[in-house]
Design a protein that fits this description.
Helices cover about 40% and strands about 15% of the residues. By secondary structure, the protein is an alpha/beta fold. The strands form four sheets. Strands 6-5-4-7-10-15-16 form a seven-stranded mixed β-sheet. A four-stranded mixed β-sheet has the order 11-8-9-14, with helices on one face. It has a three-stranded antiparallel β-sheet with strand order 1-2-3. It is globular and about 65 Å long. It binds 5-S-methyl-1-O-phosphono-5-thio-D-ribulose.
């Protein structure tokens, strides 16, 4: 897989996911505002990838702050943090990564500015490396849940492209495949931005993992025919009570899975767990541009001009629909999560 995002020659380099699968193009951001624009425009997306990219964006922005005194330098870096925090509201990994970068900055207050700048790059890179490790650990636990010969449904893209590498839900699938299990994947296309069709299908095909693409409204019929054995999805934020915000359409999949007695798993690292948010009702849900619904790729209209549009990017799946949450520490019932991650 191509790296989703990296620090390259003094720039934040990311693969432009808005161009996939038609073109594999890299975007070198040399200004933190470009990083923020890329997050907003879904050139980089997926909760953990957004967090990693924001951390790299902060490190990038800090390099061009010319202040020589800690107080004014820190003020400027905190303004950069605010700019990046205003990009997307739902994925808590974004705020988690920004807080971690702020803590690093504060811990270095007695250091020379040049050392702080270098340490911020190193911290962002550590977040990136850690994310890959978390995905691999989730993969090891999650793969145990998938049996040889099973068919797994996933929604959106919770893969290498949505993380620093390997993936959460697709990491689980990847790990099962690497263990030699002959599995099949059903990928929901994931209207309206088509992360399933454009990204999950592409990513799995790169790794030669068998994948079949369906439109979102086909999942129920396949479940009724007994053709899906397990569902695994990612998460943008998990509340203390185990409710999960993820890509719009996840809730429908979970309800269908429950109706057909199919296990429904969520794979997510600790950076996605938000114990300060008590339940799914408190999770802010991003509303996006109506053009995502009324057009394909912003240009081909599929609805009459001027029609009213509702376009939430995420929905909340209540804990009761979730069989288990696959984390880097093991697989837990949603109700056990707060106790497991309180420290
Ligand atoms: O709008 P997106 O593409 O950023 O939404 C992504 C998702 O909903 C993913 O399922 C989630 O972030 C988990 S990614 C490991």
């Amino acid at each position: 897989m191509v790296p989703t995002v990296e620090w390259k020659d003094g720039a934040v380099r990311l693969v432009d996911q808005s161009r996939l699968p038609g073109a594999v193009e890299f975007l070198d951001c040399r200004d933190y505002r470009e990083v923020a624009d890329a997050i907003r425009a879904l050139k980089v997306r997926g909760a953990p990838a957004i967090g990693v990219t924001a951390a790299l964006g902060i490190a990038l922005g800090a390099q061009s702050v010319n202040e020589t005194e800690y107080r004014t330098f820190a003020q400027a870096v905190l303004a950069i943090c605010d700019h990046l925090a205003a990009t997307r509201p739902t994925a808590v990994n974004l705020f988690w990564a920004i807080e971690r970068m702020k803590r690093k900055l504060e811990s270095l207050r007695s250091q020379p500015i040049s050392s702080i700048k270098q340490a911020l790059i190193e911290e962002a890179q550590a977040i990136l490396e850690e994310d890959i490790g978390l995905c691999r650990a989730m993969g090891r636990y999650g793969a145990e849940l998938i049996k040889d010969g099973q068919t797994v449904l996933t929604h959106c893209n919770a893969g290498a492209l949505a993380t620093a590498g390997y993936g959460t839900a697709l990491g689980v699938i990847r790990a099962a495949w690497e263990q030699g299990k002959k599995i099949q994947v059903i990928a929901d296309e994931t209207r309206p931005v088509l992360q399933g069709a454009r990204l999950t299908a592409w990513e799995l095909m790169q790794d030669r993992i068998p994948v079949t693409l369906i439109t979102d409204n086909m999942a129920g019929s396949l479940m009724r025919q007994g053709k899906i054995h397990l569902c695994v999805v990612g998460a943008d934020r998990i509340a203390a009570n185990g409710d999960v915000a993820n890509k719009i359409g996840t809730y429908s999949v979970a309800v269908l899975a429950k109706a057909h007695n199919i296990p429904f798993y969520v794979a997510a690292p600790y950076s996605t767990i938000d114990l300060k948010t008590l339940s799914g009702a408190d999770i802010p849900i991003e509303q996006r541009n109506p053009l995502e619904v009324t057009t394909i790729h912003g240009s081909h209209p599929v609805a009459p001009e001027g029609v009213a549009v509702y376009n939430p990017a995420f929905d909340v799946t209540p804990a009761e629909f979730i069989t288990g949450i696959i984390t880097e520490r093991g697989v837990f019932k949603p109700s056990e999560l707060a106790r497991q991650f309180c420290s």
